[in-house]
Design a protein that fits this description.
This protein is mainly α. The protein has 14 helices and no strands. The protein has two domains: 55 residues, no CATH class; 223 residues, Orthogonal Bundle (MetI-like fold), CATH 1.10.3720.10. Helix 3 crosses helix 14 and helix 13 packs across helix 14.
């Protein structure tokens, strides 16, 4: 039975769609401006102000960055931090969450409380820096990887996901002679791909966007990741701080906009491959507490 839509409901629908179009335009216009400005010459950027289509298209910004040793080095550092950091994050989180999901583990509640406690209280920036310095990890990528090796929230959700695995499946694997490692590798992990893919994406975004910790722990400018290099371009712009990477380079507007796009490009490429697991992983991880 088809229901007749009243005029008032149609007006409400029109208002809702209009608001959605305005919000979408407010999001897409700045992004489109960054894309088009990255292809515009400097004189057009300075004289026209806001524009969506440049009169003259140029690749100078991208050519400069892709042949710039400082940008290439920062890009490599970002890849190293993101790839190895995410691998460390997901391995340690998976192992600890699987262990805490076992009811026979002694002091499991105490360990879970300690994990939850770190979500509410932290040691602070200065004590953490003193620990990193005392361990001799300054100017090392390990200072970034170890200080954020396990996110408590991700650990708790993944532990809940492992609890949702049917007990019959685990019992049948034990009856077949599988130990804990074999059960984890051959049974639990294949069933946990949605959760693992979801938190891999979370950790990857966190590592790729590493900024404050890199400034705090990495004094060697050659090890700074891409976000720090981008900050040098956008804020300092040929100041003495930017000269620590390069000798007083005046970055053109096209180079700045190109750097923004190149910084976001890897995540835009990876996200569609993990998106299908995203909602499923989060929902499955919240079935059992």
């Amino acid at each position: 039975m088809n229901r007749t839509i009243s005029k008032s409901e149609r007006y409400v629908d029109v208002i809702i769609y209009a608001l959605l179009i305005l919000v979408t335009a407010a999001i897409l216009l700045p992004l489109l401006y960054v894309v088009t400005a990255s292809f515009a010459p400097e004189e057009e950027y300075l004289t026209r102000g806001f524009f969506l289509f440049p009169h003259k298209w140029t690749w100078e910004g991208y050519q400069y960055l892709l042949t710039n040793p400082g940008f290439i080095n920062a890009f490599k550092s970002a890849l190293i931090i993101s790839i190895f950091g995410t691998l460390i994050n997901i391995v340690l989180t998976t192992l600890m969450a699987y262990g805490l999901s076992k009811v026979w583990l002694k002091e499991r509640s105490l360990i879970s409380f300690m994990v939850l406690f770190t979500m509410l209280f932290t040691g602070g920036m200065i004590p953490t820096y003193m620990v990193v310095k005392g361990l001799g990890l300054l100017d090392s990528y390990w200072s970034l990887w170890l200080t954020s090796a396990i996110a408590p929230f991700h650990l708790i959700v993944m532990r809940s996901f492992f609890r949702s695995v049917p007990d019959e499946v685990l019992e049948s694997s034990n009856m077949d002679g599988c130990g804990e490692w074999r059960t984890l590798w051959s049974i639990v992990l294949p069933l946990s791909l949605p959760a693992i893919a979801t938190f891999t994406l979370f950790y990857l975004v966190h590592n790729w966007n590493t900024y404050f910790n890199a400034i705090l722990y990495l004094n060697d400018a050659t090890k700074w990741p891409l976000q720090v290099y981008l900050r040098q371009m956008l804020i300092d712009d040929a100041s003495a701080t930017a000269a620590s990477i390069e000798q007083s380079v005046n970055y053109t507007p096209a180079a700045k906009m190109s750097a923004i796009l190149l910084t976001a490009f890897p995540l835009l490429i990876i996200y569609p491959f993990l998106q299908k697991y995203f909602n499923k992983g989060m929902l499955l991880g919240s079935v059992k507490g």
